[in-house]
Amino acid sequence: MDKLIANIDWNQMLEATGETLYMTAIAALATFVLGLILGLLLFMTAKDNLWENKAINTVIGAFVNIFRSIPFIILIILLIPFTKILLGTILGASAALPALIIGAAPFYARMVEIALREIDKGVIEASKAMGAKTSTIILKVLIPEALPALVSGITVTTIALVGYTAMAGVVGAGGLGTLAYLEGFQRGNNDVTIVATICVLLVVFLIQLIGDSVTTRIDKR
Prior knowledge:
The chain has 221 residues and is mostly helical. The protein has a domain of 149 residues: MetI-like fold, CATH 1.10.3720. The protein contains nine helices and no strands. The longest helix has 37 residues. Its main location: membrane. It is a multi-pass membrane protein. Keywords: Cell membrane, Membrane, Transmembrane, Transmembrane helix, Transport.
């Protein structure tokens, strides 16, 4: 057994897993906030909705569509100058965060918009008829009604972020992606690559388990 995993430095593997969890957690939190805002704006400014505004809806929709369509590895390269100005470096776990957030937030924003569209318009109209303010409708009607779908959406997005961190690792972001590429692939240590992959899979399974559990608890249907 020891011969099969002879090239693995477990301290290095643990550190890489921690970096992957750090990137995923921070990016997921920022993605949730930014994606929720963008998704709400897309929904609210659409035709026949509370803040109907074609110009704003078009601009936000274009932003979301553009950044959602760019392959992540290309997005990292495009954002290198911005990342260097913002953080002073393009290497390390923190340097990957701008690309991770900008890559994932538009994806989640569309999920938020779709979730909000599924809400019965009668519920919204009833709230308006009772004189509820727009902020009250958002906080007391839209978000609570769409919450199970929002949680499912951020679960899917977070799992995608785990994959993004692995891709970012290839260009020096750290984490399991960097370990699998530099210590595994480039040095021909297949055991390192396999164990790093297993660690990624375990992170994904854990996220899915937590997401499913939370969704089940809050879904009142």
